[in-house]
Amino acid sequence: MKVFLNHLNSINAYFQFTMETESEGHLPFLDNLYLNARSHHHPSSKQSALSTLLHRATALCDQDSLHAELEFLKDYFKRNGYNDRQIHRVLNLHPNYNQHDDRRDTVAFLNFVGTVFNRISRVLSLHNI
């Protein structure tokens, strides 16, 4: 891998690649760089990032280390400004990809404008939109 990395970096001095490798039994991932709850990302984007980390943990951890990883994630989410309700929501998601009963009949696309978006979304969801 190092030879390939050196080859890529020799092509253009202004365009350089880096490589992360396993360290102390852990693999580094980039998606945790923007997880702060106070960031200006759409709430569904932040929720999706949390869900991705949870899914990765359940997919990659064996049963012996899963509990410790989930505790680590809870602590990590808290340190990044997420409240208990947000953490509880992501930890209790159990998606079943084979069921489509809860699909909405109509879809509405709204621009995100803070609390206005949330209020309109709640009203639309009451009407299965």
UniProtKB/TrEMBL annotation:
Residue ranges occupied by any Helix-turn-helix domain in the UniProt entry: 33-89
InterPro entries: HTH_animal
Top-level lineage group: Eukaryota
Pfam families, sorted: HTH_animal
Record's protein name: Helix-turn-helix domain-containing protein
